[in-house]
Specification:
single chain, 255 residues, alpha/beta, 2-enoyl-CoA Hydratase, Chain A, domain 1, six-stranded mixed beta sheet, four-stranded mixed beta sheet, globular
């Protein structure tokens, strides 16, 4: 791991991934992209880590998007398929992820927040899909239709104008708001709520949401039944009901 992206593997099963280029508004330059690819792979492979939080250093920017100077130097046209580290798209991350947005999340910064499963935002954060302002593209915004209403999505993409954290919360892009000083603690508290639950059920729950957004009702129901079968048949499923009957906290094994 380089110092462009920091990785904190906590003892409570939570990983905190921090973009650490505040001098460049945490833009997605080559060092940040490489660091994020490595960080997501490390999180996915570590069985002791259950939830990842993606945040950034500084109060001004979560991520200002792609490095436009780099793009100009490269005369970049269509970005290569694997150029950006996007969970659920260019990389596979099966475990839950939370974006803790500490400042502006523009263009690629919005993309990173959108790609995470949940989003906690500082009240000072701002969100924008600014590609129309610089003649670039935002094909990655297509899944946004499953998160916010169509006409709001249309306005955001066509105008390129920022929205406040409060507005992002109102339209359903953000799960929770927090004062700037309490942002990470709020994200960790949300992650801890997930960690308390049965690991296999959490994984199947995330997969079910993805299936529901990609399939019709009947196909999604069939696929979801299959996704949950491992959890139903697990030792944890027996432990959970037994712990409830015995009025104690369950001891999850993830199997």
């Amino acid at each position: 791991m380089s110092d462009a992206v920091l990785f904190d593997a906590r003892d409570d099963g939570i990983a905190v991934i921090t973009i650490n280029r505040p001098d460049s508004f945490n833009a997605l330059g080559r060092d940040v992209r490489d660091g994020l690819f490595a960080a997501w792979e490390r999180f996915e492979r570590d069985p002791g880590l259950r939830v990842a939080i993606l945040t950034a250093t500084g109060a001004k920017a979560f991520c200002a998007g792609g490095d436009l100077k780099e793009m100009a130097e490269l005369k970049l046209t269509v970005p290569p398929r694997g150029m950006f580290p996007i969970p659920g798209d260019t990389i596979e991350v099966t475990k839950p992820t939370i974006a803790a947005v500490n400042g502006v999340a523009y263009a690629g910064g919005w993309l990173l927040a959108q790609a995470c499963d949940l989003c906690v935002a500082s009240t000072a954060a701002r969100f924008a899909i600014t590609e129309v302002k610089v003649g670039r593209g935002s094909p990655w915004a297509a899944p946004l239709i499953h998160m916010i209403p169509q006409r709001i999505m249309m306005e955001i993409i066509l105008t390129g104008k920022p929205i406040s954290a409060q507005r992002a919360y109102e339209i359903g892009l953000v799960n929770r708001l927090a004062e700037p000083d309490a942002l990470l603690d709020t994200a960790i508290a949300l992650a801890a709520e997930i960690v308390e639950n049965a690991p296999l059920s959490v994984l199947a729950g995330k997969e079910t949401v993805h299936l529901a957004t990609e399939m019709g009702r009947t196909a999604a129901l069939r696929a979801a039944r299959h996704a949950w079968e491992r959890a139903y048949r697990s030792a944890d499923a027996q432990e959970g009901t037994r712990a409830f009957a015995e009025k104690r906290k369950p001891e999850w094994r993830g199997e």
